[in-house]
Fold this sequence. Notes:
- This protein is an alpha/beta fold.
- The protein folds into two domains: about 5-40 and about 60-110, no CATH class; about 115-145 and about 235-435, Rossmann fold (3-Layer(aba) Sandwich), CATH 3.40.50.10680.
- The chain has 18 helices and ten strands.
- The chain has helices at about 5-10, 15-45, 50-55, 60-90, 100-110, 120-130, 150-160, 165-175, 180-185, 200-215, 215-225, 255-260, 280-290, 300-310, 315-320, 340-350, 410-425, 425-435, and strands at about 115-120, 140-145, 235, 245-250, 255, 265-275, 290-295, 325, 360-365, 395-400.
- The strands form two sheets. The protein has a seven-stranded parallel β-sheet, with helices on both faces. The chain has a three-stranded antiparallel β-sheet with strand order 5-4-6.
- Helix 6 (about 120-130) crosses helix 17 (about 410-425), helix 10 crosses helix 11 and helix 13 (about 280-290) packs parallel to helix 15 (about 315-320).
- The chain is elongated, with a radius of gyration of 30 Å.
- The two termini are about 50 Å apart.
- The model is unreliable at about 435-440 (pLDDT under 50).
Amino acid sequence: MSRSLVFKWLYVGLHVKRWLFLLLLGVVLMGLGFAYLLREVYVSYTFPEWVGTATLQFLPRWARGALFISVASVLSVLAVWKLNRSMITAVLPRDQQDQVVDLIYQARTQQRGPRIVAIGGGTGLSNLLRGLKQYTSNLTAIVTVADDGGSSGALRRDMGVIPPGDIRNCIAALADSEPLVRDLFQYRFDDRSGNGLEGHAFGNLFIVAMSRVTGSMEEAIRETSRVLRVRGRIVPATLSDVALVARMDDGTVIRGESSIGHAGRTIAEVSVDPPNAPVNAEVVAALRDADLVVIGPGSLYTSVLPNLLVRGLTEALLASPGYKVFISNVASEHGETDGMSAADHYQALRRHLGGREFADVILANSNLPGEPLPGEWQSQPVSAPGDADYGRARLVLADIVDHEVRYRHDTERLAAHVMRLYFERDLRRIESRVLPPATPVR
């Protein structure tokens, strides 16, 4: 155990020093008790001469006391260390045994982290959660249940369950289990699997099977999260069977999330059917207690909006005391948001919510490439002009794009900027009360 690792046990917030002090106090009291008993024996019984030599009577009392304290301290530290190592090797994998103090410190600090609610779906939401779990374990992911394509759609039609795809992605993103277990959860059967398994993700089948064992999808999500040691919660926006319906600019109506992006027409508006599907009560409770609410990233019309269109969710969002951040996508999505800027994304959300303002900050990408993205991506960077209409929200530009795959966010940079916005919120509120109004920094 290195010296730096030993000193780490003294970090604030580990909840370890108090018990070490209590142990030390117990040893001291026990030593005092033995000292009283030995003194009583010493004054009432005459020992042979060799006992005086064995007990170092030829040394001054202060020297004997210092020597005994030193030896006792070394033995106590060695015993506690060896006891901890013995228990750690029994409960932790070999590659994590030297990181136990870091794991404890991370767990303790994250338990005191802000309560964050993330609303979205698809890979955008799971990408964000993967970064945010490094800052807090008080995470609630609200996911859409309007997916009707691929493995989720097949299970939804055949088994009558809410689609598990986005739930699976969020569980994998927030899980602290072994990487092999997470890879297994994300494994997708290919065409060689046969017997109707092709195209299905193992995690989807696992969640559906768990719902049959536990009796409900809600309990299945909780138990799956427990098995994979998920940091936070995954909550469906609604427990009702809903479908996404889109009206195109030419008046055509298309039903089904998987069909909307391939229609080849511009989307005018989307809605959920049935329109009176109630919001999940857990969603309302999470928003009521939230310190920070993050909307997006994700497919605008097929991942983010299906959540906000659930009856009662928008009202809960507007009533939430949490600091609200909308994350704009870094690249357009073919057939859905072609040519749209960050302001267009936000205005589309406001339009579907009856023109109501819901964000304090809009976080958009500032690192735009100097040349178009590859044609096979069928995507272009999303710009964020400073003179566009963002309502009362403040536009913040930051480098949050993955430099290798420029149609998605960088997990670590995105989470870091979101947390910075959260921790700076009180400072800006103080400035707004003290300083005269100024033009927001774009």
